[in-house]
Amino acid sequence: MKNKSNTAVQSRSSTNENDPVVRIRHLQKAFQGRAVLKDVTLDLQKGENLVVIGKSGAGKSVLIKCMVGLIEPDEGEINILGFNVPQLNAKQLRELRLQVGFSFQGSALYDSMTVRENLEFPLKRNLGIFDSAELKTRVEEALQNVGLAKSIDQYPTELSGGMKKRIGIARTLILRPRIMLYDEPTAGLDPITSGEINDLMMKVQEEYHTSSIIITHDISSAKAVGDRIVALLDGSIRMEGTFDEMKATNDPELAPFFNY
Amino acid sequence: MKKQVLEKILLQTAEFSRFTGKALTQFVQPPFEVKEILRQCYIVGYRSLFLIGFTCFIAGVVFTRQSRPSLASFGAESWLPSMVSQAVVRALGPLITALICAGKLGSYISAELGSMRTSEQIDAMEVSGVRPFAYLVSTRVIATTIMLPVLVVYADAVALFGSFLTVNSINSSSFQLFIIDALSSITYLDIFSSIIKAILFGFAIGLIGSYNGYYASGGTMGVGKAANTAVVTSMLSIFIIELIVLQFVTLLRQG
Q1: CA dist B55 to A28, B46, B62, B181, Å?
Q2: What is the total count of domains within chain B?
């Protein structure tokens, strides 16, 4: 454990402003002998929206879960904001997680709590804010940013899919993360609501100055929000570039993604 | 095949032991989730009062009615209060309470945690820097461990009241006399062993329910399976604990 923490501290001190905020090298992960991530290498630059596309089951969600320590990789390096993720101890991992927001595919709102309580929960737990006036201000501000101030006293079961996604994003943003990870943010939503979520992700990038990785197989979403797109196929990065560069590909496995 | 089964059992035992150790460590590690523990105590205790009260009242009535003819045939009807109280305090009260709680709370805890696991709510807690184990598991295990003894005392009292009403409807005996007869045969060891059993039952129910729910997988089917396994395993563990405590108490009585 001592070695782990030393490695993590050393790597943090060696970061500078121009380094990518996320640096992944030769990441590998297998489940019961089946390789999901074979050799993933990618960087996320500061302020960038990076979209990861790929088929269902290609390991896109596994990739971002490895980044926040929810899944332990078998091999490879994940460096986020100077934290060497596989080497972190529990305390350092918590420190990192406060700077990385994770928006889950199913929103993952705590259904025994109201929207207000969902948003207050990370503030009380992580920042130790118990002053009701401050809690109220921060919760209302976060909800206004996602356009759902009126839903403050509703339970998650009373919300639509799109509203849940926005509240999930608001709950993540309330801790003012530096990096956002979105897991299928528009999955299961109609085109209009998907468009609203895309606008929200752009707004988050602009107002919160976040760098984001967006996992999706929704190409219109990738086009709308992605500064750069990478294609994850067969457990490794097949191609990367802007939307137009990706669209021009002749790769028989990749081309169908863009012929929508 | 046999080797694989054995390996699976050993792995699960190791995993459960680690889970138990983690739960015990979190009991004494700050921050203490006092508000959540109180909320769980309310759910575990207050919301179980009616079911446990009703069942134990019926048990007291039935046990008294069924025992009376046998005692009457020996002319020992006056022993009824002491016999019922011994049966209730030593075995019936704790057992009935624990079995009801295994069904009601075991399924509630494992289904709640299981659906939180499958809907990624536990992962969401973890990535937001919250310690989900302390917040979700330790609070529930503490609540069941605290509330089971309270529920057992309540169950004993209700069962004895049911017994009194039955005796009274036949013999018109006074409540005071019934209570004096009932309590005279109860020793401190009976009360102490009953409370210890209740604590162990509560700990086992909370722990087994939490373990099955916390590691549930496979969507709604997985949640159902977790709840089912929690109830069955809790019930089995209750009988095993009952047998072990009985052996100790018997040794203490003989000594």
Answers
A1: 56, 15, 11, 23
A2: 1
